Amino acid sequence: MEYFILLIPLAILLLAFVFRGKGGFTPPEVSPISEVDLRGFEAAPSLFVNSAEATFFRYIAKALPDALHLHSKVRLEDIIRAKRGLPQAKRWAARGRVKSRHVDFLITTRGGDIVLAIELDGSSHDPKNPSEADKVKTALFQAAGVPLRRYRVGEDFALIAATIRSDMQGWLRAF
After folding, report:
1. What string of pLDDT tens digits covers the 175 residues of the chain?
2. For a FRET experiment, which of 76, 115, 164, 175 has its CA 20 to 30 Å from that of 64?
3. Per residue in 112-147, is it b (16+ CB within 10 Å) or e — as a string?
């Protein structure tokens, strides 16, 4: 009987070991790239998708206080991440929500601290009936506690830049 009581924990440990899975993180494999593959790439003519983005960037960059940086086309994965305490499967699923997405513009301190994210919405973005992609992006920023502002193409970029400058000067005084 005593042996039987000792065998139960051993059996449980053995089953746990057998059904534990691979355990740990296994990075995905990356296949080597050949010259033939490389011939399919070229530099983009501009970082900006359209002239409105380029114009908006110039207005904001000129208006920002010197203590702040303006970045464009920043990957969401670089500014919003899945929490480290999540189980691996949930972490990878959460990562999939930010992977391959970007924010149009990001204002940071010179040290890299995030101050404000900006989306410039063109005619394909309907503020009264936002797309699922816009809803997801807005929700991600809210969940992460990162301020996000949306502006529309066609609005007065000079007025927007002046407003952002004023807000950023106020933000800098607070710190």
Report:
1. 566 566 666 666 665 555 565 556 677 788 888 877 888 889 988 888 889 999 999 999 999 999 999 999 999 999 998 888 888 888 888 888 888 899 999 999 999 999 999 999 887 767 777 788 888 899 999 999 999 999 999 999 999 999 999 998 888 877 6
2. 76
3. eebbbbbbbbeeebeeeeeeeebeebeebbeebebe
170, two tokens: 């106020």
**98, 80 in Cβ contact below 8 A?**
yes
51-174 topology per CATH: Endonuclease; Chain A (3.40.960)
Question: Can you say how many angstroms the Cα of residue 32 is from the centroid of all Cα atoms in its chain?
Answer: 27
Per the listing, tokens 């009936």 go with 129
Helices (H), 104-156: 132-144
Domain boundaries, the chain: 51-174
Confidence (pTM) = 0.75
